[in-house]
Write a structure and sequence with these properties.
7-stranded mixed sheet; 23% strand; Rossmann fold; 2 domains; 5-stranded parallel sheet; 347 residues; alpha/beta
């Protein structure tokens, strides 16, 4: 049977308009218009626009909505709007609806952590599928295996790994010793994949791996080091002596564990070159904790969540890598039914 090329439309819901416009520019298409409003009692109402421009019959409809909260919309409100819009497109006879979720809220709630605790990733997966999502595109989900098990439809998970590797490689040519370090054992696989990507760009470099082992018993209260600074209250597994250390994680929330890991590096003879993460949430005491980093340490984030919570002083250290070109290329491959998404991840 011959593959039928369906026409495509790209929508961006409220809060993701700028991101969607950049994706559309990379695809050289226009963002399709839609209606998104709220009734007096707070109920959301969403649908594609009236007339020819809003006709989605037989189309593959890509819908971008990043699930983070700000002072305008909570994570739950964004999620509800996404569900309603997915359903409206299916009811309007769209061929396929492919939600693109750059930051997936609730992704850390991927296992039962205590009695009666919800596995929230499974709950939201069922809701998204029941609304009519035919396949999904994510960016650096917290636990890829958990997401794959939660969804019964095809999913693709892009990674910021090649973008961060490009950024670091341009600045680390000639450095004798580099170490990629995870702030916890759960991120070791991510660190290994990033190290491989960095080696492709710096094949002659000496690039090692390390993990921060945070101590959790009753004797690990915050103390002061001999130089007067806070101690990390943890151990570095791996050799960071005289190394430029790249701290790597999928997300920065309150920055607590990450800052403890960064404190540990000089205790073991290394220097933190950069903190590379995909999703910068920067909630709670994050700004105060970022102040503990040396002035020349950059925090490199992706554009999946705007860094609107970062204060003026800390903005000097923030660098943003663009994911929109990669998302555009993934959309092109999905819509055409050809090409490999893995090629984007393993670049």
């Amino acid at each position: 049977m011959d593959f039928i090329q369906h026409p495509m439309k790209l929508f961006g819901l409220k809060g993701s308009e700028n991101y969607t416009k950049e994706v559309a520019d990379a695809l050289r298409i226009e963002v399709s218009s839609h209606e998104e409003r709220v009734f007096d009692d707070g109920e959301a109402y969403l649908k594609s626009s009236d007339g020819k421009e809003g006709n989605v019959r037989g189309h593959n409809c890509f819908v971008i909505q990043s699930l983070y909260g700000d002072d305008k919309l909570s994570v739950s409100e964004r999620f509800t709007r996404l569900l309603i819009f997915i359903g409206s497109l299916k009811q309007a006879s769209a061929n396929e609806v492919i939600p693109i979720i750059p930051h997936l809220g609730w992704a850390r709630q991927d296992r039962k952590t205590s009695s009666r605790a919800p596995v929230t990733t499974k709950i939201i997966a069922k809701a998204l599928q029941n609304a009519g999502g035919d396949r999904f595109l994510f960016f650096d989900v917290h636990n890829k295996s958990a997401i794959e098990n939660a969804f019964d439809v095809p999913i693709d998970n892009l990674e910021a790994k090649p973008l961060h590797a490009d950024w670091c490689a341009r600045r680390l040519h000639g450095v004798k010793k580099i170490v990629v370090m995870s702030p916890d054992a759960g991120g070791l696989g991510r660190a290994q994949r990033f190290r491989a990507a960095l080696l492709k760009r710096l094949p002659k470099a000496n690039i090692g791996l390390a993990v921060f082992d945070k101590l959790r018993d009753s004797e690990t209260g915050e103390t002061r080091s001999a130089t007067g600074g806070k101690k990390s209250v943890g151990n570095v597994i791996g050799d960071v002596q005289d190394a430029a250390v790249i701290m790597l994680d999928d997300m920065l929330s309150t920055c607590g564990t990450m800052i403890k890991a960064c404190r540990a590096v000089p205790e073991f003879g290394g220097k933190v070159f950069a903190v590379c993460v995909t999703h910068g949430l920067f909630v709670g005491p994050a700004n105060d904790r970022l102040n503990e980093l040396p002035e020349d340490t950059k925090v490199v984030i992706a554009d999946t969540v705007p860094p609107f919570r970062v204060n003026r002083d800390n903005r000097k250290r923030i660098r943003v890598v663009k994911t929109t070109d990669m998302v555009a290329e993934a959309i092109s491959k999905i819509n055409s039914g050809t090409g490999s998404i893995s090629e984007l991840i393993n670049a």
